[in-house]
């Protein structure tokens, strides 16, 4: 009569996959029935009361044949039954060991290791349960788990005692004890210091003495366990390498062995990798996402160990298998495995390009990857959204993902209110890079959050760098200006004033520039001078970006004006090194180019007809470029429009705002005339001539004359 397997109460709370895994001692130890310990793993599990076995569980079952045999062989062993049934806590197991050790045989030590590590793992699982899940457990079960929590020191001491005895009696180990013992030790987080290279060498000798017997059990598990224990079993590997084909190994054994070898960076028998990869390919014609992902991860590590010319072909094969496993919309896809696999595929593609001048065919993989991640975006935690975003290589894929993110927000499938300040900044960075037209929504949301106190002061301090980046982006894009200072501006200045030490060299240039652009001249924030002085000690590993160089040039012009007018001390003129000034000026000159050549040509023709003397694209006093300098009239004309403005509120973007502000207010010998081309193009020919005629008249007084501005 087939025996009924009894699971622990905790197991009943887990899903069907974990129920099956309770069959395995290495994952979750089974509390046996009162009729004995033996479990018939060869009996069919597809009955009315048991769920079907998935591939992951099947792999575990196949890789634990030695333990299954041991269970059957020792089903009537009273000590083993006591170890499993009568010791529910680590302290009970320790007491049982101390009292009965003299009666132990080597197989008992193997079961002790299993039971001990199972109790430790179950305690860790219990710690990860929610309060609701804990309350659903029987009270006696909760008491047992709680007694095991925090007993790691006692557990480590017990394992050390067990290992001490095994180390002294290694030669007495039997096959059914060796494999389970090695697997437990290789996966255990407890003390295993008593077992060293000498003991592992003796165990390898015993394996070689009865090599055929171990072949029938699970030789790949032995090699894999040895490698995890930092011991390379050269004799076993050499013996396996003598075989022309590894036909006795299934795909799980091949994967397990390959993973152990690449993790240990084994490189002494490169041809052994070839045989394993060939057998893996032969035995995995039909695979799934998980197995294809494992194969790709192995190849990614293998590229740093060997120079196998066929590695790229193997990579393409498993990429194609991977695509087959994810391309159908109704297939169950594991997003975490997909993300890891995407990173691996990118790495393999880079390797193929650099090492072999070949490229992998990734079109189908990329297409399915973007589709799946975009479809699942509302299922991700906030931090995973940004990790997935960074995993895309090209801008078009990132744009599709950002569009899905915005769509999910609009459909209330993602609640932006659940984002902390750091996560909000990451979201704004995504939008800023690919969908600026939607940036105003995030600006309004953040401004309202600060107004209503949704983000507390401590949250802003804890995420100060993110707060700094948000402030900078909104200044850069024209949402915060001298005329439009909102809650974001005031809250940031208030927070910065009390926490200048939190300002890092990664953000200092952006923040200083942002304060200069958004500072009201009537306020004249003292923070600007303090932060400018901090530039004297500026130092970081990464070079200044193009944007930072452009901003540094505008900071330099601002500082020159302050020093010239004796507002700042003359010592400030050397705060920015000359080399940095030169690099910043070169970058700004490339940036500050004529964006409206057709308009400039048309206006130049009109000025010629009006008999005006002018220079095009003239740099005024070594500061900013003007589109026209009217020599006789002592006036300059600058254009604004199009991409120079925020399309939502029509304010100039920060860099142009700072330029125009300087030309309007700081020049003593020129008047600045601003032509907004969005308005200019709607004027009649006569109106345009009339405007230019007035502009060509000699300037009156100092400064900017607003009547000349369209």
From TrEMBL:
<protein>
    <recommendedName>
        <fullName>RAP domain-containing protein</fullName>
    </recommendedName>
</protein>
<dbReference type="InterPro" id="IPR016024">
    <property type="entry name" value="ARM-type_fold"/>
</dbReference>
